[in-house]
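[step 3/7] fold_predict: job queued, chain A
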Amino acid sequence: MTSSVNKVLIVGGGFTGMSTAILLSKQGIEVHLVELDEKWKTDGAGITVSGPSLRAIEQIGLIDEFRRHGAICQNVDMLTADGTFLRQIVTPAVPGSSITGGGGIMRPVLAGILAEKVQQSGVHVHLGCTYETLTEQEEGIKAILTDGSEHVFDMVLAADGVFSKTREQYFEGAPVPQYTGQVVWRAVVERHGLERPALFYGSNGKLGFTPVSSTHMYLNYTEQRPQKSRIADDELLPYLQNLIAPFTAPVIEAVKAELSESSSILARPLEGMIMPRPWFKGRILLMGDAVHATTPHLASGAGMGHEDAVVIADEIASGGTVEEIFTRFENRRWPRCSMIVNNSRRLGEIEQTGGSKVEHIQVMALTMSALMAPI
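[step 4/7] structure written:
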């Protein structure tokens, strides 16, 4: 097939947008990336990255940097709140990759790795910039950017996040993310000898730790909160300390003693959404959180964006018209992304209602098994 794609606009400089820019530049495509934040800054603590998501990072060409700056571990320990060992979840080798296990990394560190690679790839990066208008024309789609430049692109890939401006403006009636009734807490602490990810189960919830480097790990705790509300910055530390007070395992006691205002404590309401098909209109395609925002229950939120990048690059390389490329992209991504969003939502419902632990385990196991299949 002959490709009809020579010049592409990517809207959004997050994980999805940067991953896509890297892969398309390898094909010799002229890539322009617009990012509204002029500092191109990524906030946040650590993130857990599943084995299948690491496979996508490897396909983007960044696994060596991930290993250097993050942590890849095998298996996950399950324990009670006082540290009594329950069982170990085995994390298998991921087919089609060099990956065994799962990983963790600081979100700003991963963003920095991607940004450096984007700049090395010859991508035209427009910071502090977005588009004013997108107009379909016979020869392509005309974009007037807020930096005053005008371009005609073969396609626009909108990876502008969970509250996507592109989705709102160009996809009438599209859904918006809905609050799920849970808030995830994160903080960065020293590893205190923890060898691999660990989950501690208490009467008031589940407290987890994921290594993000050779020296540090991040804490994550999911709070049940029926009404969405914001906690003031000066209340974050005491609030988190109160949440984890019932957990008494030795490593958690060490974490309690370490927690401070400098622990990068964050509390984020969990919201999710998957947009019904089609995900494209004319020459505009939605990607990443703009079309399939998920909660972190399956450690696949950022990973779905990396996978989107791998698939769209693959389909562009396969050739055809823009409509054919977008249709093939959708056909490959819809079953996988809808499964992750819907199963993550179900896991949250089970946790909020005190539902069946057997169902919770089954949903986790079946989903992770399905994710091992090729992207």
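[step 5/7] annotate
The domain at 179-270 is CATH 3.30.9.30 (D-Amino Acid Oxidase; Chain A, domain 2).
The chain has a mean pLDDT of 94.
exit 0
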